[in-house]
């Protein structure tokens, strides 16, 4: 068994690196797009400074629509878009397109939920003294939700690791692809066992790191 692990170590290293690329890109896109979407879902609620029922409903429907599609179906559905965007439908970069699309609404809902924990009286007081919406978002909403945003990013990262394993079923690369090619198609139990252990260790590390950072920034 040890000899087999040493034999596949180069491929395992490549697969691990591809998984990190996929998850990293997905997280970055979730932060760049999902965070603003989540804030918009919150501030367009009734009683808040950008109250807009139509905008919130439309945005909410789009977010819920994407979230309701099982990832493996979303992966296949986005193949033409992926091919158009990156010029291929296989590999880590291609798989990161679907991962990013799945991550945006997932993280957006977490951001919205974290923002709802803020005492609305604080926001109302800021409005009363003439604070602009952008100032309220920058100086009240984001700082107050920081621990929740980090915890949400941790949850998103762990979910993306699971999704990245699914991407391996269509040649998306990463640890999931290695497990499918060797562990499943070739009935190689050593590869399957090793990839599972690697994924477990990766998830535990991310969870620990995320919890540690969230506790560090939590000033409450």
Outline:
With 220 residues, the chain is mainly alpha-helical. It has helices spanning 2-43, 53-68, 71-77, 79-86, 92-115, 120-128, 133-167, 174-184, 189-217.
Describe, in plain words, how this protein is organized in 3D.
The chain is an all-alpha fold. It has a single domain, classed as MetI-like fold (Orthogonal Bundle). It has helices at 2-43, 53-68, 71-77, 79-86, 92-115, 120-128, 133-167, 174-184, 189-217. α4 packs across α5, α5 packs across α7 (133-167) and α6 (120-128) packs antiparallel against α7. It is elongated.
Strand content: under 5%
DSSP summary: helix tally: 9
Low-confidence parts: none
Which oligomeric state applies? single chain
How are helices and strands ordered from N to C?
HHHHHHHHH
Radius of gyration: 20 Å
Distance between the termini: 50 Å
Q: What does the overall shape look like?
A: elongated
Largest sheet: none
Quickly list its features.
220 residues; MetI-like fold; 0% strand; mainly alpha
Produce the secondary structure layout:
Elements: H1 2-43, H2 53-68, H3 71-77, H4 79-86, H5 92-115, H6 120-128, H7 133-167, H8 174-184, H9 189-217
Helix pairs in contact: 1-5, 1-7, 1-8, 1-9, 2-5, 4-5, 5-7, 6-7, 7-8, 7-9, 8-9
Keywords: Cell membrane, Membrane, Transmembrane, Transmembrane helix, Transport
Subcellular location: Cell membrane
Transmembrane segments: 20-43, 55-78, 84-108, 149-170, 191-210
């Amino acid at each position: 068994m040890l000899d087999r692990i040493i034999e596949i170590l180069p491929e395992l290293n490549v697969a691990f690196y591809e998984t990190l690329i996929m998850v990293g890109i997905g997280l970055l896109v979730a932060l760049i797009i999902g965070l603003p979407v989540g804030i918009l879902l919150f501030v367009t609620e009734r009683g808040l400074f950008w109250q807009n029922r139509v905008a919130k409903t439309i945005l909410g429907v789009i977010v819920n629509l994407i979230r309701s599609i099982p990832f493996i179906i979303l992966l296949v559905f986005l193949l033409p878009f992926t091919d158009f965007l990156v010029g291929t439908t296989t590999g880590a970069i291609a798989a990161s397109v679907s991962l990013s699309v799945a991550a945006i609404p997932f993280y957006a809902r977490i951001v919205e939920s974290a923002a709802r924990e803020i005492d609305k009286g604080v926001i109302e007081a800021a409005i009363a003294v003439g604070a602009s919406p952008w100032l309220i978002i920058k100086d009240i909403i984001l700082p107050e939700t920081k621990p929740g945003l980090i915890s949400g990013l941790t949850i998103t990262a762990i979910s993306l690791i699971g999704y990245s394993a699914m991407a391996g079923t269509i040649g998306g690369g990463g640890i999931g692809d290695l497990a499918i090619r060797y562990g499943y198609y070739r009935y190689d139990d050593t590869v399957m066992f090793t990839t599972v252990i690697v994924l477990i260790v990766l998830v535990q590390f991310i969870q620990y790191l995320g919890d540690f950072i969230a506790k560090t920034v939590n000033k409450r």
